[in-house]
Structure prediction request, 432 residues.
Amino acid sequence: MPTLEIALLSGRSCCLTVEPEETIWALRDRAQKELGVGISVWLNSRTGKALKRFSTVAAEGLQDGDLVTASARQAKLTSNHRFSRVLALIRPNGSVVTWGHPQGGGDSELVQRTLALRDVIQIQATASACAALRDDGTVVTWGRKRFGGDSLWVQGQLREIQKIQATSGAFCALRADGSTVAWGSVRHGGDSKVQLANVKDIVATQGAFGALQADGHVITWGRHRAGGNAELCDVELLCAAAFSFAALRSDGLVQLLGAPSAVDLGEVSSLVASAETFAALRKDGSVALVTAQNSETVRLLETKYALREICTSAFAFAGITNESTVVAWGAPEFGGDSSGVEAQLKEVKQICATESGFAALRQDGLVVSWGTKGGDSQEVRHLLKDIQQIESSSGAFAAIRADGLVVTWGQADAGGSPNGRVKEQLRNVHEL
Prediction:
């Protein structure tokens, strides 16, 4: 039988004997136990290609003596800032800590006791439920049943899942074979009868899902007033606002689904959306804005520097420039005015947003915040140092420090103030 060497970037390694039909995720599970760390990404060093989770040793072309290079999985914060009041931490070993509104999925103690929340790689949330994707492609759910917390009726289909997306009341999972599985509130897109094929991406408004198929065909379902029941062809990229979808077509034009015509916004590289406005980041770093109500209402954002990344609150935007400064625009009460902290917004590497506030992580590990709902971080400023990652729910922020402490601030019922039991679990989070 073939023997593979699994080597971490740190230099630690192990040798494992494998069966040709052994799955990659099973091989990774054995390697994690042998090396004592979680593994996030690994490559076949001979071909330079990433190994696919649901493939097999033989299908990936691994041969006796091959070297597989792996990177250790880091602790990661996650949430759905559009409407979720829950924050979650995925530890390096795949175990999970959740906090925030208990009726929104913030209390996962019961499902934790079943040992189901292990080997987790992604968490998604509706307004009142959570879904965790495990490394073996299965899904665990908890929270209010009618908001997607009960996946019993579709559990048989929840296998080889690659990605989960959420509206405010339903989930949709994308399988490795390109098929979809939906559950939760039918009104919000959770109709399990909707089963599509050849899907390569899923996005979601508050009440509808949009699926982009491999041939460029887009299908949406869910609430009509949230963008459901629409179709479009020749699409390269799909984006969701609160109640509508926009598509970048293969001819370079941008079209709102349901609109009679498309608009030319120049050479678009990406689309992002607030509740009512789509922002097209163009290849030259400039930005064109389109309102969701009227695709003919287009305006160009005037900025001193080109932008490389854009983040959104409900009614405002914040972009990182090529000089690593920040440009904010939109409703001031939703974080559209950063003038009060402009001098501090230097060497910024990450921005995230609540419903009405922003937080920026700088290269030196400090955090700058503005707006409301978490925009005031003064009470925890002395703790916000050596920060590695920041994340947000709809009303609160969380940050991981280099020493493994998680710092939170913002609305208490959205994760800004975890209870004592959770606080103890938010220490030394880098350890297995």
Summary: The helical segments are 24-35, 109-113, 420-425.
